[in-house]
Design brief:
Layout lengths: L15 E2 L16 H10 L1 E4 L5 H17 L7 E3 L5 E5 L1 H4 L1 H7 L5 H8 L3 E11 L7 E4 L1 H9 L6 E7 L10 E3 L6 E2 L11 H4 L10 H11 L2 E2 L7 E5 L4 E3 L8 E10 L29
Antiparallel strand pairs: 1-9, 2-11, 3-4, 4-5, 5-13, 6-12, 7-11, 7-13, 8-10, 8-12
Length: 291
């Protein structure tokens, strides 16, 4: 298969214009109106308040507390901060019936199908914990760069849905995005180490753009920040440049994070890694969600 987006290179390479559309479906394919579709295509992200109602929030927070408390040290799906606290738990939709129900909500699944133009499956899911005072951030990156290099995702036909379970303020480590950056792929320098995911899920150094590339991108696209009340969903394209700062406030920030991939974008062999990442990071069975 031809590699449209070569990365993890020996030396810097110029940015590559995106080859695929951002919106694959049409107005009649789902709940988003034309203005929302146009905004997503232009900006690379979309904010949807009220994706889960107030009656869902306390039960979902309780599920996060339960998963965090039950997190075993020998479970590879549990990612811990350097200080020992739980950072993320992967496959929550398989660990919690309630999270599995969220995937099927009318405010979630039909949006994914509309944006990706057809049937979808869960490529990856996790819950993220960013406690007050100690929550560490995520450095600037494009998810697609990792999914392409290490998982074998061939095309930019995936979308992430981050559902806030706590209020997101401008000061408690909320996500920052570079609007419009989804239209450009930034190749990265440096070969993928063996079992890279064991380190990169805590701190990513390989598969991130250079400071020069990030500076150029920030000047070109600017930076927006996602804020909003609990229950709000942030939908963002797989290739948009995003990251978050640490949370030194008393206000925690937690979310359910769902990645939908098109069934027509099946994973192949990794494009820049010796072997695929584990199933809990990159699901390969194309079981339809809601199908």
């Amino acid at each position: 298969m031809i590699d449209t987006y070569p990365t993890r290179l020996d030396q810097p390479s110029p940015p590559i214009p995106r080859a695929e559309p951002t919106v694959w479906g049409t107005l009649t394919d789902g709940p988003l109106d034309q203005a929302a579709l146009n905004s997503y295509a232009d900006q690379g992200f979309l904010v949807r308040p009220g994706t889960v109602g107030a009656d869902w929030l306390d039960p979902l927070r309780g599920e996060l507390d339960r998963m965090g408390a039950a997190a075993a040290d020998d479970d590879p799906r549990v990612i811990r901060e350097p200080g020992g606290g739980v950072r993320s738990v992967f496959e929550p939709h398989l660990l919690s019936d309630l999270v599995a129900q969220v995937v099927e909500l009318d405010t979630v699944l039909p949006v994914a199908r509309q944006l990706l133009g057809g049937d979808v499956y869960i490529h990856q899911a996790r819950v993220n914990f960013m406690p007050g005072f100690t929550g560490a951030g995520f450095y600037w990156h494009s998810d697609f760069e990792t999914w392409h290099a290490e998982d074998g995702m061939p095309a930019m036909r995936a979308v992430s849905c981050s559902i806030a379970l706590t209020d997101n303020y401008s000061y408690n480590g909320s996500l920052m995005l570079m609007p419009g950056s989804h239209r450009v792929f930034y190749p990265c320098v440096g070969a993928t180490p063996d079992n890279h995911h064991r380190a990169s899920l805590v701190r990513q150094d390989i598969g991130v753009p250079s400071r020069e590339a990030l500076t150029e991108a920030a000047h070109r696209f600017g930076i927006s920040q996602f804020t909003g009340p609990a229950g709000t969903a942030l939908w963002f394209d797989c290739n948009i440049m995003h990251g978050s700062g640490s949370n030194i406030t008393p206000f925690p920030r937690s979310n359910v994070f769902l990645v939908f991939n098109s069934v027509d974008n099946a994973l192949t062999e990794p494009f820049a890694a010796a072997r695929p990442r584990p199933e809990f990071l990159a699901a390969r069975p194309k079981a339809l969600v809601g199908g």
